[in-house]
């Protein structure tokens, strides 16, 4: 049986990814590791820290010890830790937002990115620029941080959170060629946006599809 370990920095990414994994890889065994102190520590520091990277290593080393076939990193805020850890962990690691960043850089040259926390926005922007550079494409990234939405979420007001985010997304769509949602938890808003002038990309579906493709490539390579 295929075993996938998902490393989360909070509980909000667990259900969206469980749903996608069940849909795309229904026979896989999925193990979720959740440590909400990771994102809290990144937010407190304002950036990824060596201590957070070390804890990420320990979780992914545990996944390797569980004989996982693949590890899925569920949070963009710690995604750059994966770039370091891929050289230390034998088990292949997929970043949830990598496929989305690649798709966005192929769609247009003016890319909008929406987040509710700056520590997620900045690595997502760097990821998009990296993917564009790999394809020798020049892009302009337009950033939006909907901080009021995050404060509303902390206060338990999900309705206001969603309202602020929708307004931010729709407004940004008038300025760019494609909009990227930097956090997994935002994906549930996409069906409620209605018709938008440009594509709005979220990471759960494409990230799990990327993981599925990596699994299939690994299997074909061992035959």
From TrEMBL:
The lineage of its organism: Bacteria, Pseudomonadati, Pseudomonadota, Betaproteobacteria, Burkholderiales. Coiled coil: none annotated. This is Glutamate racemase. One of its GO terms (molecular function) is amino-acid racemase activity. It comes from Paraburkholderia humisilvae. Transmembrane segments: none annotated. Belongs to the HyuE racemase family.
């Amino acid at each position: 049986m295929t075993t996938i370990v998902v490393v989360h920095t909070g509980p909000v990414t667990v259900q969206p990814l469980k749903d996608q994994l069940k849909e795309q890889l229904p026979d896989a065994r999925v193990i979720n590791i959740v440590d909400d102190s990771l994102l809290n520590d990144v937010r407190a520091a304002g950036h990824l820290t060596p201590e957070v990277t070390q804890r990420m290593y320990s979780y992914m080393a545990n996944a390797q010890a569980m004989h996982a076939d693949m590890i899925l990193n569920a949070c963009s805020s710690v995604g750059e830790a994966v770039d370091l850890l891929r050289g230390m962990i034998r088990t292949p690691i997929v970043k949830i937002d990598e496929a989305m960043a690649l798709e966005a850089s192929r769609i247009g040259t003016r890319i909008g990115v929406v987040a509710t926390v700056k520590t997620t926005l900045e690595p997502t922007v760097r990821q998009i620029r990296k993917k564009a550079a790999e394809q020798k494409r020049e892009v302009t990234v337009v950033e939006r941080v909907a901080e009021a939405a995050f404060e509303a979420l902390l206060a338990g007001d999900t309705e206001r959170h969603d309202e602020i985010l929708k307004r931010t997304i729709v407004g940004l769509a008038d300025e760019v060629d494609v909009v990227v949602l930097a956090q997994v938890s935002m994906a549930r808003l996409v069906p409620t946006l209605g018709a938008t002038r440009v594509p709005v990309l979220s990471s759960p579906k494409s990230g799990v599809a990327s993981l599925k493709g990596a699994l299939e490539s690994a299997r074909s390579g061992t035959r």
